[in-house]
Amino acid sequence: MKFAILVNEGPYTHQASDSAYHFTEAALRAGHAVVRVFFYHDGVNNGTRLSVPPQDDRNISERWSALAEQYDVELILCVAAAQRRGLLDEDEAKRAGKDGNNMAPGFQISGLGQLIDAGIQADRLIVFGD
Amino acid sequence: MSVLHIVNKSPFERNSLDCCLRLAKADSAIILIEDGIYALQKNSAAADKLQQVLSKHRIYALQPDLQARGVNPENMLEGISLLDYDGFVQLTTEYDKLQSWL
Predict the structure, then answer these.
(1) Which residues on chain A are in Cβ contact (under 8 Å) with B98?
(2) All domains of chain A, ordered by start, with CATH?
(3) What is the pLDDT of residues B31-84, one digit of tens each?
(4) Quick one: closest CA in A to B3, which residue?
(5) For residue range A69-116, what is the model confidence (pLDDT) as tens digits?
(6) Closest CA to B92 of A3, A74, A38, A6
(7) Chain A interface, mutation test: which of B85, B94, B98, B101, most A Cβ atoms within 10 Å?
(8) Which H helix or E strand runs over A25?
(9) Which CATH architecture has domain B3-101?
(10) Strands B59-62, A75-78: parallel, antiparallel or unpaired by DSSP?
(11) ipTM, two decimals
């Protein structure tokens, strides 16, 4: 079965981001396809590679990146939500004249159309948020 | 069309469980996750509401979230099934639509 995942909350603020990760991981492990994980609103903060959580705590963005690499899953940040919150890849940073970028490996910036498309392609769309 | 309702709010904080129970059709199921699991503690006002709809809906709860909040399964309303994440994924494949009551 094909799943699409929508994450509306940031890391370390609400359990939604953890729940979404555990659900996605369990779905992939069971052999299901995950069409796309779409990060919207504060959810885009899951995509920073500059977070430095304490060593005995989970590293939420690294955990997503590892999942993307292992299962070849698309992790998409909404462009408008990402720009507002300072989540930039190399191209976006250059375009906005910023001195650096902070996108974690496996994450990409794209538009809201990718959420609609995921909803159409997938058999199930599941939303995690507050 | 069958629906799985996902409730992640404590019934003592928000009214999402009430909204869900008011609108959910008879063939739909409900899973309590995150703070939603506080609804299933025996002898609480919320559990009384759930008790009344147990004949109408299958009700599930996410076991890791129960454990994270220190809720003893023995204090849980009877007739509710506990699932881990694998079970949660399986459950979502059995219903046509997923409705998160955020």
Answers:
(1) 124-127
(2) 2-128 (3.40.1260.10)
(3) 999 999 999 999 888 999 999 999 999 999 999 999 999 999 999 999 999 999
(4) A124
(5) 999 999 999 999 999 999 999 999 999 999 999 999 999 999 999 999
(6) A3
(7) B85
(8) helix A16-29
(9) 3-Layer(aba) Sandwich (3.40)
(10) unpaired
(11) 0.97
